[in-house]
Amino acid sequence: MAWFWVSERALGRLFKFYPDEKRFEEIQLPETIFTPVSLGIAPDGSLWFTDFEELMGSVFIQFDPSSGQLKRFSTYPKNGNPSLPLSLSIDDVGNVWILEQAGNRIAKFSPRLNTLLEYELPRGRLTSSLNIIQFIVARDGRVWFTEYSENKIGFIDALKTIPFSVSLSQNYVKTKPGSVVKVDVFIIGKPKTSVHFMVSGTLSPLGRIINATTSFSPAS
User: Fold this and answer.
1) In terms of C-beta density within 10 A (0-12 exposed, 13-18 middle, 19 or more buried), how is residue 188 classed?
2) Model-wide pTM > 0.85
3) Using CA atoms, how far apart are residues 42 and 173, in angstroms rounded to an integer?
4) Phi, psi of 59, rounded to the nearest 5 degrees
5) Nearest by Cα to 84 from 54, 129, 106
6) What is the pLDDT of residues 38-51, one digit of tens each?
7) How far, in Å, CA of 181 to CA of 168, rounded?
8) What is the mean pLDDT of each run of 10 residues along the chain (220 residues)?
């Protein structure tokens, strides 16, 4: 069987195509998903796609075809504006790579570790945004991308080790209006150094923490 996407403004849909039967099966997405753009199939059979929506587009989504369950994952907004995830690719080990066009970043999401790593790209010489349109994840660990505004190509060496690790006391939380939820964040440096990272604020429906205050302190 084959999958492909159809994008309609304010009416996102997915279609499943059965080649032997020459038949399409329509999957209507919730109204909160406006513009599904790029699509990829993970090794576990789950379907991933980006929602490129001008007003709220900072999310990418996992869809389980067997259960119909959707999970939204948020990228980090750029200066308070949507990052506009555009292209998406899934590597051989199941990492989901996302191009954040307005965010000027390329991100890697690990479903196994439930972590999102965003690579901030240098500002352009001619414009503040590189206007990245396409990228590809090579087998040697490099992520190649095009800079439309700069007439250049570039790459990220994704095999370089990040000098710290981040873990949470819980990966999923359910909140109600007016409720308070505590999630411990552990940041461990290499060489090993532990710190406390405290954030307080309001969680929006899109997964953003607004009106936030933060503080760091060494772990005792």
Assistant:
1) middle
2) no
3) 25
4) -120, 155
5) 54
6) 888 899 888 999 88
7) 13
8) 56 78 82 80 89 73 87 81 86 92 89 89 67 85 84 87 79 76 77 66 62 64
| CA-closest candidate to residue 14, choices 24, 23, 118, 120 | 24
Strand order of the β-sheet with 59-63 is 36-41, 47-51, 59-63, 70-74
Report the C-alpha gap between 145 and 150 in whole angstroms. 12
**Residue 146 is encoded by which pair of tokens?**
């095009």
Give the sheet arrangement for strand 209-218, strand by strand: 164-168, 185-189, 193-203, 209-218
Residue 32 to residues 13, 57, 70, 72, 187, Cα–Cα distance (Å): 12, 11, 12, 11, 33
Q: Is 202 within 8 Å of 209 (Cβ atoms)?
A: yes
- Round to whole Å and give the CA distance between 162 and 199: 22
Tokens of 205: 């429906």
Question: Shortest CA distance to 77 belongs to which of 100, 97, 111?
Answer: 100
Structural domains in the chain, CATH included, are: 2-160 (2.130.10.10), 162-220 (no CATH)
Residue 213 phi, psi (nearest 5): -125, 145
Give the pLDDT of residue 207: 56
Residues 6+ apart with CB under 8 A from 180: none
Write the pLDDT tens digit of every residue in 90-124: 998 999 999 988 888 999 999 988 889 999 887 76
